[in-house]
Amino acid sequence: MPPKLCALCSKERAILRRPKTGQQICKDCFFYVFETEVHNTITEAKLFKPGDRVAIGASGGKDSTVLAYVMKTLNDRYKYGLELFLLSIDEGITGYRDDSLETVKRNQQQYNLPLKILSYHELYGWTMDRIVEKIGRKNNCTFCGVFRRQALDRGAASLNVDHIVTGHNADDIAETVLMNIMRGDIARLGRCTLICTQGEDTIRRSKPFKYAYEKEIVMYAYFKKLDYFSTECIYSPDAYRGHARMFLKDLEAARPSAIIDIIHSGEAFEVKEEVKQAAKAQRKTLFLSRPTALAKGILERCKRCGYISSNDLCKACVLLEGLERGMPNMSIKEKERSRLEVGYGPSDMRTIPKFELPPVLADAASPQPKGLREN
Amino acid sequence: MTPPTPPENTSSKTLNLKLEFGGGMELLFSNKRSHRVSIPAHVPAPPPPTASASPATDRPDTPRPSDVNYLIHWMKENILTERVELFMEGDTVRPGILVMINDVDWELEGEGEYVLKDGDEVVFISTLHGG
Ligand SMILES: [Zn+2]
Ligand SMILES: [Zn+2]
């Protein structure tokens, strides 16, 4: 059987079948179409403007490693004019994150991008190893999720960026759509397919790989010989997500368009009126400058650490206080929140350093710098 | 047309293969990313239950040449060190594992029915591990 020729250039030997289109294409055409599709996703969604400072959430895994490589490639090729950074969170998981961070450090060298690593230990005084030692393996992902989100924002603020891109791919998003359907979480269902989100915190998060298939990301890393780390988090017990993932892989094996079809279903889901209202209210705050919104009381801050929070205490402060008081389970029950004393905890309790908005956001509404006022 | 070193019969010939693992697959194979193995050039009788009878095997004594489906079974029996359910589902690799034969997506090579040659390199990469 002679080798099949590339369906795009008709010259080189085809080396893979694209899951999206079924086309059999050669290596160079694959690199080109993969990169171009990400570029099209970025430009159609108008994710960036020249001069933007953008952090790439880098875990050392396949998705963020390929994302860093492709972002750098596209920024050079299409003159986006972005200043790119790698931002990594060290959760303090021995044998997992310490190894993956070594990968990120190599990526920093290979891609010549500045790297910022922020650890749970320096921010919260607790590593995930110690948290798991204390609370066991039942709710550890709740802690990790809340802590990581805030750590990313704080890392972004310290880099003075207001935009984080993450490596979430089409398979991840389809999986989240399925999970939200199975949980009946219609409000999240619409939101989880958005390419760019801005939650109650202030920093934008975007997913340039929204339409990139996991298979192609792995193939891209393989053919480019990119250096990535692949081991599952040793504390990750999310069996439900695991089942959703395998279900999705089975669907994809039977019909590769299933991934994109599910994303489109999520996008097209009719969102109820009250959900729309809530989203509209949220959007309003997005078009105000963040500090203006803060001043108007639309965005509230955690009374203890200053992080953006609609409650008196942000989730991380609630969880941290639970840990410090030795009552970690208290903290995940919403009702108990009100009992926590706001503003201070036990005198020897660790608290999170004060959160400051990145200057790029804060400049807009801070009083004019002195030098400018004297005219 | 006589081969340099004639084997006593075809079914005792072996194929030397290079197997590579990535994306966490190596954890199932002694945590080694690269293995050199020799497998029988023909599927030993009785064939594994998965071997679907093809027209060529009308006569039961016709040896079936080793293909990737047989390789996967051979790997399970000989070099897999843990958790078969993370490697196989039914008679083939679990969905989410990419297979490359000599750097070509196995979907272009007939998948499990690809007939192996001496010196082939087969790569197994899991896509299931976090990004
Ligand atoms: Zn081509
Ligand atoms: Zn707080």
UniProtKB/TrEMBL annotation, chain A:
Residue span, tRNA(Ile)-lysidine/2-thiocytidine synthase N-terminal domain = 54-232
Q: Where is this region: Disordered?
A: 343-375
Gene Ontology CC: one annotated term: cytosolic tRNA wobble base thiouridylase complex
Task: Tell me the organism.
Answer: Tulasnella calospora MUT 4182
Q: Which Pfam families match?
A: ATP_bind_3, zn-ribbon_14
Task: Quote the protein name from its UniProt record.
Answer: Cytoplasmic tRNA 2-thiolation protein 1
* Pathway(s) served: tRNA modification; 5-methoxycarbonylmethyl-2-thiouridine-tRNA biosynthesis
Outline what the protein does: Plays a central role in 2-thiolation of mcm(5)S(2)U at tRNA wobble positions of tRNA(Lys), tRNA(Glu) and tRNA(Gln). Directly binds tRNAs and probably acts by catalyzing adenylation of tRNAs, an intermediate required for 2-thiolation. It is unclear whether it acts as a sulfurtransferase that transfers sulfur from thiocarboxylated URM1 onto the uridine of tRNAs at wobble position. Prior mcm(5) tRNA modification by the elongator complex is required for 2-thiolation. May also be involved in protein urmylation.
Q: Which residues form a coiled coil?
A: none
InterPro entries reported in the protein's UniProt record: CTU1-like_ATP-bd, CTU1_C, Ncs6/Tuc1/Ctu1, Rossmann-like_a/b/a_fold, TilS/TtcA_N, tRNA_thiolation_TtcA_Ctu1, UPF0021_CS
Read off the lineage from the record: Eukaryota, Fungi, Dikarya, Basidiomycota, Agaricomycotina
Q: Does the keyword Hydrolase apply?
A: no
Q: Where is the Cytoplasmic tRNA 2-thiolation protein 1 C-terminal domain?
A: 301-330
> Could you state a single Gene Ontology molecular function term?
tRNA binding
UniProt keyword annotations, A-Z? ATP-binding, Cytoplasm, Nucleotide-binding, RNA-binding, Transferase, tRNA processing, tRNA-binding
- Which top class of enzyme applies to this chain? transferase
Which family would the database say this protein is a member of? Belongs to the TtcA family. CTU1/NCS6/ATPBD3 subfamily.
Q: Name one GO biological process term.
A: tRNA wobble position uridine thiolation
Gene of origin?
NCS6
Query: Could you say which residues bind ATP here?
Result: 57-59, 63, 89, 167, 172
Location in the cell: Cytoplasm
Q: What is its EC number?
A: 2.7.7.-
From TrEMBL, chain B:
Its annotated pathway?
Answer: tRNA modification; 5-methoxycarbonylmethyl-2-thiouridine-tRNA biosynthesis
Q: Which UniProt keywords apply?
A: Cytoplasm, Isopeptide bond, tRNA processing, Ubl conjugation pathway
Annotated GO biological processes are: protein urmylation; tRNA thio-modification; tRNA wobble uridine modification
- Where on the chain is 1-thioglycine found, per UniProt? 131
Gene Ontology CC terms? cytosol
Summarize the PTM comment: C-terminal thiocarboxylation occurs in 2 steps, it is first acyl-adenylated (-COAMP) via the hesA/moeB/thiF part of UBA4, then thiocarboxylated (-COSH) via the rhodanese domain of UBA4.
Compartment annotation = Cytoplasm
Q: Does the keyword Cytoplasm apply?
A: yes
InterPro entries linked to this entry: Beta-grasp_dom_sf, Mopterin_synth/thiamin_S_b, Urm1
Annotated crosslink Glycyl lysine isopeptide (Gly-Lys) (interchain with K-? in acceptor proteins) location: 131
Region described as Disordered: 38-67
Role? Acts as a sulfur carrier required for 2-thiolation of mcm(5)S(2)U at tRNA wobble positions of cytosolic tRNA(Lys), tRNA(Glu) and tRNA(Gln). Serves as sulfur donor in tRNA 2-thiolation reaction by being thiocarboxylated (-COSH) at its C-terminus by the MOCS3 homolog UBA4. The sulfur is then transferred to tRNA to form 2-thiolation of mcm(5)S(2)U. Prior mcm(5) tRNA modification by the elongator complex is required for 2-thiolation. Also acts as a ubiquitin-like protein (UBL) that is covalently conjugated via an isopeptide bond to lysine residues of target proteins such as AHP1.
Family statement: Belongs to the URM1 family.
Name listed for the protein in its UniProt record: Ubiquitin-related modifier 1
Q: What is the lineage of its organism?
A: Eukaryota, Fungi, Dikarya, Basidiomycota, Agaricomycotina
